[in-house]
Amino acid sequence: MSGKVALVTGVGPGTGASVVRRFAEGGYRVAMLARDADRLATLESGIGGAKAYPCNVLDADALLDVCARVKSEMGSPTVVVHNAVGAAFGGFLEIEAKVLERNFRINTMTLLHLGQAFAPDMIAAGEGAFIATGNTAAHRGKARFAGFAPTKAAQRILAQAMARDLGPKGVHVAYVTIDAMIDLEWTRAGPGKDKPDDYFIKPSAIAEEIWHVVHQDRSAWSFDVEIRPFGEEW
Question: What integer best gives the mean pLDDT of the chain?
Answer without folding.
Answer: 95
